[in-house]
Amino acid sequence: MMLLLDRLINLLLLLLRPPVKTSFSLLML
């Protein structure tokens, strides 16, 4: 479930702003 949500959030962030998505990925790591 969480993975699915993460996927959706990543896609949304990517659509909104690529840099934000990268930051989010770094935070997740």
Automatic annotation (TrEMBL):
Lineage summary: Bacteria, Pseudomonadati, Pseudomonadota, Alphaproteobacteria, Rickettsiales
Superkingdom of origin organism: Bacteria
Record organism: Anaplasma phagocytophilum
The encoding gene: p44
Protein's name according to its UniProt entry: p44 outermembrane protein, silent
